[in-house]
Amino acid sequence: MNVSTFKIANKLITGEGATDQLFNEVQRLNIKNPLIVTDKILKEVGVVEKIEDKLNCLTFDVWDGVKPEPEVHLVEECTSVFREGKHDGLIAIGGGSAIDIAKGVSGFAGFDGKIEELFGTDIVPEKGAPVIAIPTTAGTGSEVTNISILSDTEAQLKKGIVSDYILPDVAIVAPEMTLTMPRSVTAASGIDALVHAIEAYISVNASPITDALALGAIKLIATNLPKAFSNPNNVKARENMATGSLMAGMAFGNAGVAAVHALAYPLGGRFHIAHGVSNALLLPYVMEWNKISCVERFRDIAEALGENVSHLSDIEAADRSVESMRRLCEAVNIPKGIRHFNVPEDAIASMAEDASKIERLLKNNPRIFTVEEIEKIYRAAY
Ligand SMILES: NC(=O)c1ccc[n+]([C@@H]2O[C@H](COP(=O)([O-])OP(=O)(O)OC[C@H]3O[C@@H](n4cnc5c(N)ncnc54)[C@H](O)[C@@H]3O)[C@@H](O)[C@H]2O)c1
Ligand SMILES: [Fe+2]
């Protein structure tokens, strides 16, 4: 067996009412003056207030400047507020965008250079202020991973700061935080979580530990995403989605994600398509290409998605996994076709060039793609 490491947030607190533990955790981490990192929508729907109430009148500030698919300058802005307010800890309340900004600030606040210099793996020089992550979507798993994904405005690409120093200190995953998520965000973030689990399961770096988490996550998400989508107040489905997304985060945070994410990045970076949607647009086409490289793994995925494949050959079962994902994306109203997102067809060749350079993710993929093959996948998904 190959050597593999497994790292996640230092502590996970999960289940309805988990946010009641927030104050204890703030004290345990010796945070005296936290900065809450969130956005205006989450303030409006009352999610932020619920958390403020748990802080027992501790001194804190709220920075509500988070935007979806955050650009690098937002980390710089939040870092200025963090430094000026002499804050000593970060509480992220939001989806991947808020959590990634808070992790970015933790890595950047003590760094003497430009934030772009931190893009890449293991460049953050030391552990910064502690981060408590409270996800309000069930999708990214950012509450347990060592990655902060930011849009590099100049390069028009999404890039990652990858460092164990930015692993959150505590992840508080409470399903009630996700109840106000709009349908479209429930669908997009839920499919993102499913893609994390599928890509972790077929990754060349998968281990028995990440396999168990990935298959468990696929089962939970496939069963509960349609339920949470059809009835946003179904707390049990929300709870299972939160757990599924957390498990998928633990799986991909160690096994990595692969070609779906690599091909999705140019769509997010250049055309600002929501991360989960860009993944969903490409998923069935990339699965189609990947399936012959590890057909028995795709059989397992089909089973975890709820397909009865006992009477099928491996390749037939693998086909079922692709069909099943197509059906699920359709059931949760994910639009089909990149063409519907104002992406001009003549952008495909350069998108393929850009995607082919995302070696950090492509190296995890079970099949090696040439630029020409990537271009074919974009054209099929167009
Ligand atoms: N760091 C990682 O490990 C990792 C992994 C996957 C994706 N990401 C990144 O995360 C980002 C996407 O995050 P996301 O999918 O969680 O969405 P998001 O954080 O961008 O939020 C999307 C929208 O939903 C709203 N929203 C979120 N929760 C809500 C709630 N409970 N009630 C009402 N509105 C709510 C937000 O205000 C926002 O407008 C992308 O930038 C992506 O690249 C990071
Ligand atoms: Fe993702």
UniProtKB/TrEMBL annotation:
Gene3D superfamilies listed in its UniProt record: 3.40.50.1970, Dehydroquinate synthase-like - alpha domain (1.20.1090.10)
The superkingdom listed in its UniProt entry is Bacteria
What residue stretches are annotated with the Alcohol dehydrogenase iron-type/glycerol dehydrogenase GldA domain? 10-175
> Residue ranges of the Fe-containing alcohol dehydrogenase-like C-terminal domain?
186-382
Q: Which UniProt keywords apply?
A: Oxidoreductase
Molecular function in Gene Ontology:
alcohol dehydrogenase (NAD+) activity; metal ion binding
List the CDD domains hit by this protein, alphabetically: Fe-ADH
Which protein family is named in the record? Belongs to the iron-containing alcohol dehydrogenase family.
Q: What is this protein called?
A: Iron-containing alcohol dehydrogenase
